[in-house]
């Protein structure tokens, strides 16, 4: 009986005992990370620290960050994907509300700051990432009215819906569309997939966010294979062949079909249409979940963005050999743009200093440079302490992996999404989704920092702003 | 939380009290009326089988005294599928007849341990210490249990008689060490049983690491599971005091688990830890007379789950969460044997759950409350049709749930009505046919309904999951020449509607929705027999699922086989018992889209027991051919393992 009592005491001790101080002590390390900032050409992240309240300065009252005052702007926020179609115009997705309204695709004109409704689908969160193909814009739709790829004639003003490409189904609806550039692809001896029956031209990424399949279409939008590369293309190991969190890269080499498998997997796969593998590699070390976001191929180098920060890796733009996907050693570390930003803690309902990371997201090629959108969101993405750094776009010279320009997008936040303007080698749009320190999705704070920006990158890497729409105004 | 939380809590408690009082009055009146009716008609029924024994229920008994691995005990049950995420102490759940693991209710005798907000019952936190028998109800459970489970019920039953002492120590691969003690005994009035166990394992088993590149095997390597070490402790104390028709029973059970959380997939979590503890207890009074039974019982318990992920190895944010659950439970049940062929039973329960979620790195505690009232009634008709024994049970139950998620949400009510109609008919003295039609449901959890203000978005209007099942079968038991055997063959069909699934809305956010319906059809065969020195046991489950659009439900193998062959011999004073077991899990999909197929796997286990007087030495070689495998992608299972144990067991009264 004594033993029984002792053992039950052990159980009770576990149930009711004090917190494991050894465990909890370890958690403070992350909070003490240096808040170094970088002296960029344009962005001066140090200025954000100037807002930090100084406890010794009694004469300078600190203004409460929350609640946010209601901005005057009333335009719908472009909370979904963005697709520039040329000049000052882009198609933007206004995300609907679950069970209330569906997504809307609108034509945005930066010059006139007007939105023109182009198309509405039945369901919210159903329109994905589109692409411009000549005179057409292609948008994937997961709407219950019929999953497929919506075709819009963008030579019309406003663009008009001309039809739907039947691809995907309700189980694995289309989420993203990308083009395969013309070119010759040479893979290795390893051919894990069947050869396509035609020349790949359009890729449609289908996913239910648990598993994924890549449909391949020819130039006439005929489906060559509706799940050519899918989660079950080979047996599952620690991961499936494709996870449920997959992105199509912003720029691949001619004839190459590439896929970025993101959070939890961190693998780039490059294939040829004959089913042969060019290379497949994990782009983070064994014990680090880098959250691969996007990549471009410039010459013989793959440049990939990694959103999370580890020990001496991640939070960066990193280079790999395009043929082997072995790291070249070139890397742009964005951690100097990490900053401590004055924000708000919804747990304590007080101002709080919040550690943010640069969080590089999308990367595109413009004027011979790599252009990276930096989201600059909290280190702990879903904590109660919320703040975002000012939007920044980084221009990188890939020849020496140096930062040419850090372009600050003053007043706007959460600017990780950069999209190239078709037909131009230098123009791009930045979609700043906005970020409220007063709660996830809090309307006023989000609107106050949301907007669309049109930029041009010069040959020397300098950035000029061609237009902007602050949704707060 | 502050004053607002206190006010809501006080209001809820008052409301609970008022409901409970009404409920008690109703139950008492019912019981009184039933007794009065029985007396008025002069019924003189014999003392019958306890109401908790339901011959129409589809149940399997698994003796587990001296066992320690509940998963291995359940593997042999037709229709049961144990889904594992790793070795000792890693989460595992029980899917019954293709239902979700969250559709299985867990009971300690009549005390419910699981609930809408505890998630799927984690078998890793179910200790067999002090448990005599598992009872697995597939489909509708006996009305006496007052369960609305869609899948079934796993009931832990404690010994009620005998006098025995036992102790065991065991060592094994991957740093496993276990010590278990148990004792039971008493006299005609007082019976006491108790047990305790402590186990630990490094769980550093080998597995194949593919480096996340499934097309490129050149970078594969063999790794050892890291940060999976675990320590488990459990204890149970059970007392019964009987005098005449009256009985008092008390039980307290505690389980604790502490260890690492190795995570899933190619990136190991090296600094993530979790601690789980659960203690439950109950005190009950029962009266068993000629004309009926009555039970009044109260119970409750507390659970605490701490999870520490400071470096965001598993979650998207630094986490030191401390989730606590507390439960108060009241149960009143009565059975009246009105006529020799008619009994009426009624059972009502009140359950009050408090959940406090705290993340020390992020926010202050958030408290949510849920109060559930249930009332059910059953009519049992039994007798003979011709010279064949027959029984028919019809029951209905309704559960009312009121949920308050403290931070600014209004109380929300949901109702869950269920029914069961079941019958059995003896075709011959040892052959019986049974059939039942039953409905079940699952209330949405608070997290599914209100989200977590971060990665999980709120989902207003989330409906109750519901299901309807039908099954029929034949059970035979008896002797055929030298063969002593029991056999069961059953078929079932069930539909499940409004199944709740998380749908991702972005890379980081998800939302619970009623998005799936499914039908499941299956067949089960079970056999147990003994001929001479040979003993055999086998089960087979066939399951066909249809989730619409020609897709099958994932994680549901179409075929499952378990078979075990053992023989008993004596060499002088030593008894030896070699045995071999084969477990086959058919191919199954790992994703709703049915793209990822986990291949069929067959595991072979060998065991040798040698007994000398009260001592038994056992050598077990599990997964002889080192097939390993995984039930969930990214969660490798241990391969070949060796266990060696020495046990002492002494019956004190022959």
How does this model look, in words?
The complex is a heterodimer of chains A (473) and B (654). By secondary structure, chain A is mainly β. Chain A has helices at residues 2-16, 21-26, 28-31, 46-49, 443-448; strands at residues 82-86, 89-94, 104-109, 114-120, 131-133, 136-141, 148-153, 160-165, 174-179, 202-207, 212-217, 223-230, 246-247, 256-261, 267-272, 277-282, 292-298, 301-309, 314-321, 327-333, 339-345, 350-356, 360-366, 369-374, 385-386, 390-397, 402-413, 417-420, 427-432, 451-457, 463-470. In chain A, strand 14 (256-261) and strand 15 (267-272) form a beta hairpin. With 654 residues, chain B is mainly beta. Chain B has a single domain, classed as TonB-dependent receptor, beta-barrel domain (Maltoporin, Chain A). Chain B has a 22-stranded antiparallel barrel. The radius of gyration of chain B is 25 Å and the shape is globular. In chain B, 47% of the residues are buried. The interface between A and B is large, with 80 and 83 residues.
Overview features:
heterodimer; A: 473 residues; mainly beta; four-stranded antiparallel β-sheet; 5 helices; 31 strands; 41% strand; globular; disordered N terminus; B: 654 residues; Maltoporin, Chain A; 22-stranded antiparallel β-barrel; five-stranded mixed β-sheet
Summarize the structure.
The complex is a heterodimer of chains A (473) and B (654). Chain A has 473 residues and is mostly beta strands.
